[in-house]
Structures are given as C-alpha cells and as structure tokens.
Amino acid sequence: MTSDIFSIFNPGKIKINGELIDFTIKDLEILENLGSGAFGETKKALYRPKDLVLAVKYEPKPSDIESVKMKYLKTEIMALQNSDIPEIVTYFGMTFDEGKCVLLMEFMNSDVDSLYKKFKEINPGKWFDERALCIIAVKLLKALDYLKEERRVLHRDIKPDNVLVKKSGEVKLCDFSMAAIFERSKSAATTKDTGAPGYRAPERFLGTTEDDGRFGVRSDVWSLGITLVEIARLQHPYNKRGVKSFEMIVNIVSKDPPFLNLDESFNNGYSKETVDFINTCLTKEVSNRPYYKDLVEKDFYKKNIMAEDNNAYMEKFLQNFF
Prior knowledge:
The protein is α+β, with helices and mostly antiparallel strands. It has two domains: 104 residues, Phosphorylase Kinase, domain 1 (2-Layer Sandwich), CATH 3.30.200; 209 residues, Transferase(Phosphotransferase), domain 1. β3 and β4 form a beta hairpin. The protein is globular, with a radius of gyration of 20 Å. About 2% of the residues have low confidence.
C-alpha cells in the first residue's frame, strides 16, 4: 500500500493560526502520558518550533484503504478537521511514526470524568455544581447538534471521558474514533456494538432501530442523558461497584431509566428545569425520545447557551481543581 491513499489527510503538515507548516515527529517533545483507550494512546507534547503544547493521539495505521480502521480514521479526521466551533477540540494536523497515525490536537486540562471525581473528593455527599453541569450540558449539545446538522456526523461514544475542560473555562467534545457519517456509511450507523456499554441506549442491546433502520441521533441523546446523570450524582447510574456487565445490561434494557428524582434534586439545589431537561433525554422508548433539534429549542438550552458569563463561571469553578 502506498502512502498516496493517506494524502487526503495532508500528513506532515500542521495548521496554526491559518498558517500551514511542514513538520516531522522530531518537532515534538513528549511531556507526559495522558491516557489510553481501545483506539490508541494520548500524550501531552510540546511542538518546539511554536512553543505550543498539544495533545498527541497515537493510533494504529490502517493496513488497507477499505478496512474498518481506515473508515473510522477518515471520519475522525474529517469531523475534527472541518469543525469550526469552539465546543469541539481544535485539530492541527497529523503525521506517521513507526506504523502509527499521529494526530495533533488542542491540549485541554482535564476530562469531565476526572473533574467530577475531584469534585466528589472535595465535596463528599454533595451533587455536582448545577450551573457548571448546565454549561457542560449545553456546550456538549451544541457540539453534537453541529456535527449532525453541519457535518452529518454521529459521535456514538458520548461519556464524561470524552468531554474536556480547560482552565480558561472552555468545554469541548473530543474523540471521534467511533463516529459515523450518516450518508456515506449506513453500515457504520447501523452498528449497535459501538461506545461503552454503560452509555448505550436500550435499543442498541435489543436491536430495535429508528424509522430509517439506523441507530441514530436518539441513541446518542440517551448517552447524553446518562452522561449528565452521572456527572450530577457523581457516579454512573448503572455501572456501580459490584455490578457485573450482564447485570448492568439487563438493568438498562428491563428497568426504568435512571431519572433524577425531583425531591433529591431540589435538596441538592437543582431546578426543575434542569431535572426535566436531563430526564427527557432518558425517555426509554426511542420513538418518543427527542432529537437534538428538539433539545436545542427548549428554554433550558436557549437560556444557558446564551449566558455571557459561561466561560468566566467555569474558569472560576475550575480553579478549585487545577
């Protein structure tokens, strides 16, 4: 296989402030490991020519242009490369190194999974800060709706680990390694075994689909709801200590959704508007569950996304943890 098939990714180029620059792997100084997952590992690195700190993701280089890995890589880079909203991590470029694809992205200070666990340590017995959760919710929804409406991309792996925060107060969606393109990849959109099991919608286990025969936006809306419940209550609603994987799946499929209880929510300072917004994402019957386009029309979204002090509030909130 020649390197020509990778020319669509423009390898060996990094784009900074609109300037396209040649670069090699030697321009990077690895600073520390940030984590690893099913599709590779991520490291913090310094791009020395510009003194720019980056997040560098290493993924296996696909061996065949028609391989599943190649399709996922194309979707991941396309989603990042063409996204121009501040709620999605910035993509700078890519190259190859020792049989791996190396993706250069914006460095963020933490994922929300780590953030809420730090909050839990400092504030035992409390729920997550409501205003911070509302900001995370609407920023995440804005990113997901943008991907669907402007890029025809379905994320399919929504969870706290894939929502990032920066000390300056920014909240961004990341990790498109399981994403699917609606028009070009119906087979990918119909795949049910994607994303972490604890965040999959009931229909993904049952094999029931939406009207067009796919697991679409409304399956991701469920994942959004689970993510928000987890952040609010500082623990995953299904994947609790001692619960085995099969038992968790049975609970997702057969039991009532893990709605936020109004009384408990009020005792933790949450408004009915916040609770209702989160709970509507967890409508069990997929045909009754809202789309992104329905959620962005709700007063909860409009009020919180338009608040001018969102970044300032998050910056002050995050000072407690970094």
